Amino acid sequence: MCEMVAVPAAAERQLTVRAGTTASPFDGEPTIAIRGTDLGLPWTGPTNEPILPGDLPVDRCGMVLGDAVVLDSWTGDGHPSTDGLADVTYWGDCADASHLQVGGQLIIQHGSHVRGWLDPPLDDAEALVDALNAWEGDEQGRGVMVAVDEHTDFHRFNRASWTHPLHIGAIEVVGTPVLGIDWDSGDHAMRHRGERRFGQVCPVTPHPGFEGRTTMCWTIPPYAPGDERTG
Question: What percent of the chain has pLDDT over 90?
């Protein structure tokens, strides 16, 4: 269900994460090309020999950075709501007409506009979904597309990234900050299609970094024509 690379880091301090970007070859928007995490530990490795503790694919479900013990408590997609709340969103050609009848606030998700409600209790969210599914906007019986997302850690980090240009969001899991990366769907679908089973994997490598501390890097190679894969 997931992959992980775990390495030692300094205790009692937050990880510093830096990202370098490049322009997407598909829409020109900035996308992450290199991610470096300052582990807070002095560099003690060789100066001219590569170290490879592992590798990771650009997975469409995203990437999470945080304390490995804390991530034992991570709640993923399909887990029941951890706070009894959910988010309900709807969209489509009839969304404006539906809004006049059903209501809902305007919500921005990575530059796209949808309507809906954030944080209603689960029972209220289910009632809103039933009302939206029952609503018909014209003589053809057309309605709207509806999504209900219970509050899991996976959804909360996705939600935290909705307004960030690099699709990054920070949340707390059992009181500890955790950083999530939600990959751009267009870039993923075209450039990284296939993921690990089609060789779309990038090495995780430690390097000497800022002030002689160890930095863990994960680099996506530059795009070249012909990189798109099908399958």
Answer: 53
